[in-house]
Structure formats: C-alpha cells, structure tokens
Design a protein that fits this description.
By secondary structure, the protein is mostly beta strands. The chain has one helix spanning 260-271, and strands at residues 6-9, 11-15, 18-24, 35-46, 53-59, 62-70, 73-77, 82-85, 90-94, 99-104, 114-124, 135-139, 146-148, 152-161, 164-165, 174-181, 185-188, 196-203, 206-208, 211-213, 217-221, 228-231, 236-242, 250-252, 255-257. This is Pirin family protein.
C-alpha cells in the first residue's frame, strides 16, 4: 500500500473467557477515520463445554459492527433485540446516549464443539448524534454489495466506496471493504477510497515496494486516495477508514465520548445501575477497577 504511515502488529487482549487480537487503538494511532476500536476474535475451536459469554455491558457514543467469518453469536440488548448473527451478516448497534447488550454462544451450540472467528468494531458517532436514541440493525449476508474483477472478489461491508453503498445504516462518511485475491495481482484502487485508511491482513501476504507484510499486521495511511498494493493468491484483507472527525474522541472501558466528563458520568451511571436492562439476560459486567 503506497504512502504507508504506520505498520502495527495485532496484540492480544481478553474479553471474558475469550482471547482476541486488538487491532485498534494503539498508542501511536488512536483512530482511523471514524473507526476507534477493532478486535480480531479467534480463530478458535471451542469444546462442547466452552462458550463465548460476554454478559450485559454498556456503551455510549458509538456504533458497534460485528462481522463473523465462522461461528455464531447471539446478541441481546436493552432495546429488546434478540438476534443470532452468522458468517457474512452484519450486526450494527448504535449506542447513542446509552445501550446495554450481551454476546453469547447460541443455545443450540452450547453443548457442541464449535468455531469462532470474526471482527468486532467500534465506530464513533458524530458529535451532533452523540446522544441519539439507541438503534439496532441486522443486514443479511446476501444483501451486502459484492462484485469481482479479474484479480479479486470484493464486498462492501459498510459505508460507501466504488460507487456503491452498503445497506448498513452508518452515520458518517466511511467504508469497510473485504478483498479476496484470486491470484497474484496488483490491486489498484486509487481514487476509490478517501480520508484515512487501514489495511488489515487476515491471511496471505501483500507487498508495497520492496516490503512484504503478512497476517496480523495492519498498515495505516493518512491518504487513502493513493491506495495500491501487490497481493498474493488466496490473500484476504480488510480495508476500513473514512473521514476523521474534527473533535478528539476519548475512550474509557466501553464508552466513547467527546469529553472526559461524559465518560465519567457514564461510568457513574453504570455503577449506580441507571442504564436500561437487557431482557432475558440479568448478568452484569462490573466497571473495571482503575489502573494504578
């Protein structure tokens, strides 16, 4: 990818009893366009007694995007949503002024061996929508724009690019794109993207100039308009980005806001149990203790 500004390595993190690779944020780079948080879940093979169980926890000031490569997650939230997500579909939950949700292995899989692999993403909301009412939208895999050329297969998971628009209802100018290479080729998408851009290599290898990059690396550029790179057969990459916001975003635990005062109020509200409940899931994830 031409004009690379950062090369970052995926780092490990824990969510409940599940190990994930943290792609964003990093100390060197806190956001990419409106994207402020990206986790790579798995790949993991879970035994019949192992399950994903992230109990009810809150969010404000963001939208979450869940996209699975393998496995299934059952989502419940305080809006009243109860939805299983499967590979290729998109769960898009907008927290706004406050939402609570849980993510668990579906009941029909809890006593079976199963796989889990996917991405979980946070997209900050524009300042004027920071306190909007929460929403949830599910987009089936068949409704995601997909096309191919002589070099690769493409999917526009969210946002706008290549003259196409995903049905996922985003609130800022952004894109999330999947590219799967058919054979060794040059991917030239100059002029198709905009703003800042990150390229995550899920599998395979890409080359930019004399340098080669492999799985679990993320390449970041400040000018996505100039994006071009070599790709090897069988490689899968995800490109995400868009126009950055003029205001800084602060992140604390599961909260994103334009001020630290908003974050502090959200934490106090969670401790005092002022957030709405999740129907049919009475768990509670406590606020983490402050780091010393």
């Amino acid at each position: 990818m031409s004009n690379i500004d950062f090369i970052l390595e995926e780092k490990a993190a824990d969510i409940g009893n599940f190990l994930v690779g943290r792609l964003l944020p990093f100390r060197q780079k806190r956001s990419i366009g409106p994207f402020v948080f990206i986790d790579h879940m798995g790949p993991a093979c879970l035994a019949d007694h192992e399950n994903l169980d992230v109990g009810p926890h809150p969010h404000i000031g963001l939208s979450t995007l869940t996209y699975l490569f393998d496995g299934a997650i059952f989502h419940r939230d305080s809006i009243g949503t109860a939805m299983e997500i499967t590979p290729g579909a998109v769960n898009w939950m907008t927290a706004g002024k406050g939402v609570v949700h849980s993510e668990r292995t579906p009941e029909h899989l809890r006593t079976r061996d199963k796989y889990m692999h996917g991405l979980q993403i946070w997209v900050a909301l524009p300042k004027e929508l920071e306190f909007m009412d929460p929403e949830f939208h599910h987009t089936e895999a068949k409704d995601i724009p997909a096309w191919e050329d002589e070099n690769a297969n493409y999917k526009l998971i969210a946002g706008e690019a290549f003259g196409r628009k995903s049905p996922v209802p985003v609130y800022s100018r952004l894109y999330m794109l999947e590219i799967k290479a058919k054979h060794d080729a040059v991917i030239d998408i100059r002029g198709e993207l905009y703003g800042e851009s990150g390229l995550y290599i899920l599998e395979g290898e890409i080359k930019s100039g004399e340098h080669a990059y492999g799985p679990k690396q993320i390449l970041i550029t400040k000018d996505a308009h100039l994006c071009t790179f070599e790709i090897t057969a069988g490689t899968t990459v995800y490109i995400f980005g868009g126009e950055p916001f003029p205001e800084e975003r602060f992140i604390s635990w599961n909260f994103v806001a334009t001020s630290k005062e908003i974050l502090d109020q959200a934490k106090q509200d969670w401790v005092e149990r002022k957030f709405p409940k999740v129907p049919d899931d009475d768990g509670y994830v406590p606020l983490p203790a402050p780091r010393v």
